[in-house]
């Protein structure tokens, strides 16, 4: 595809070591401009390995600015260029097109990154959180494949009962009416939601309709439509080395999602690591001072060093 003209938009995130972001428009879909923030240390003669970071938010909300500064700084200090990306959001954009955005972001990094921020196109890892973890796992089937994948509390199966049936945890919360749920969604495609869309997500979980709203297919009547949309069903022997991190007390995405993904990777002979955090909930890593989070990041940085080293 033809990339938009290289257009750098200066962006500042205050109060951290690496507080300067170079913001680019990496894709234009219709009237929707999709952006990426690039963080890096001082340029050197040697091209830098790249982390493409994908935000969570159930594919419905969230943005590239959700990358935690403490985590970002650890990656940059370790020598990585960090590319935090947006993508079009559901339900206005359906899942096939969202996955295309991720694939286009990977292609943009490989083709434009060397000239824009001295990226090494052959050393790319993808890290995602929650729905971003799911998208990172989907990237295992891209061509060319990333060198490594990291999924924080992501999921390999989007048609299990946990997503296709009313969820007991969310059903204990006040019911969200259809009118209230759809108030802030609909209209043209967006990659940065202008309004809070949490009520829409809560309504989807209370009624077990998230897969239908996000993918545009009903898993009960069109199960075959979800086969290419479930990473756990698309693992091959050449799937990238993968790290899975999950809190054992996650009430949003069951820890079993990462456990089952690890079992499937093992069955295909794919190198992988599974790290579970006792008593850890969803977004356990936001507690940067906890021993579990600290230990997990030490193992993560070692994993990246192993798989993004120069050959």
Structure description:
With 311 residues, the chain is of the alpha/beta class. The chain has a single domain (8-307), classed as Alpha/Beta hydrolase fold, catalytic domain (Rossmann fold). Helices cover 31% and strands 20% of the residues. It has ten helices and nine strands. The chain has helices spanning 69-77, 95-117, 131-138, 161-164, 168-171, 178-181, 198-207, 210-215, 256-267, 291-307, and strands at 8-12, 20-29, 32-39, 48-54, 81-85, 119-129, 148-152, 242-247, 272-277. It has a nine-stranded mixed sheet, sandwiched between helices. The radius of gyration is 19 Å and the shape is globular. Residues 12-18 have low confidence and may be disordered.
Task: Give the arrangement of secondary structure elements.
Blueprint lengths: L7 E5 L7 E10 L2 E8 L8 E7 L14 H9 L3 E5 L9 H23 L1 E11 L1 H8 L9 E5 L8 H4 L3 H4 L6 H4 L16 H10 L2 H6 L26 E6 L8 H12 L4 E6 L13 H17 L4
Parallel strand pairs: 4-5, 4-6, 6-7, 7-8, 8-9
Antiparallel strand pairs: 1-2, 2-3, 3-5
Shape: globular
Strand coverage percent: 15-25%
The CATH architecture assignment turns out to be 3-Layer(aba) Sandwich
CA distance, first residue to last residue = 29 Å
Helix content: 25-40%
Spatial arrangement of strands, main beta sheet: 1-2-3-5-4-6-7-8-9
Structural class: alpha/beta
Number of domains: 1
What do we call the CATH homologous superfamily?
A: Alpha/Beta hydrolase fold, catalytic domain
Mean pLDDT: 93
CATH fold node name? Rossmann fold
- Uncertain spans, ≥5 residues at pLDDT below 50? 12-18
Oligomer: single chain
Number of helices: 10
Q: How many beta-strand runs? A: 9
Helix-strand topology string: EEEEHEHEHEHHHHHEHEH
| Broad CATH class | Alpha Beta
Reported for the largest beta sheet, the result is: 9 strands, mixed
């Amino acid at each position: 595809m033809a990339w938009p003209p290289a257009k750098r938009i200066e962006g500042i995130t205050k109060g951290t070591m690496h507080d300067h972001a170079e913001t680019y428009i990496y894709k234009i879909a219709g009237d929707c401009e999709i952006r990426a923030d690039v963080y890096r240390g001082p340029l050197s003669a040697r091209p830098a390995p790249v982390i493409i970071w994908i935000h969570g938010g159930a594919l419905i909300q969230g943005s590239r600015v959700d990358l935690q500064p403490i985590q970002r700084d650890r990656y940059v200090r370790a020598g990585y260029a960090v590319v935090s990306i947006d993508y079009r959001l559901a339900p206005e954009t359906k899942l096939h097109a969202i996955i295309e955005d991720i694939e286009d972001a990977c292609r943009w990094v490989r083709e434009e990154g060397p000239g824009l921020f001295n990226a090494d196109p052959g050393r790319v890892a993808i890290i995602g959180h929650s729905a971003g973890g799911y998208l990172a796992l989907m990237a295992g089937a891209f061509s060319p494949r990333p060198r490594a994948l990291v999924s924080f509390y992501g999921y390999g199966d989007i048609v299990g009962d946990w997503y296709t049936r009313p969820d007991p945890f969310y059903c204990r919360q006040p019911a969200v009416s259809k009118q209230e749920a759809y108030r802030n969604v609909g209209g043209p495609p967006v990659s940065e939601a202008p309004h809070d869309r949490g009520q829409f997500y809560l309504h989807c979980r209370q009624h077990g309709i998230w897969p239908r709203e996000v993918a545009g297919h009903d898993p009960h009547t069109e199960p075959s439509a979800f086969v290419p949309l479930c990473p756990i069903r698309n693992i091959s022997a050449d799937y990238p080395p993968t790290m899975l991190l999950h809190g054992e007390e996650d009430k949003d995405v069951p820890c079993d999602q990462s456990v089952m993904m690890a079992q499937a990777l093992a069955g295909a002979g794919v190198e992988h690591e599974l790290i579970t955090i006792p008593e850890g909930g969803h977004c356990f890593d936001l507690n940067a001072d906890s021993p579990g989070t600290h230990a997990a990041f030490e193992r993560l940085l070692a994993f990246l060093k192993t798989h993004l080293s120069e050959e």
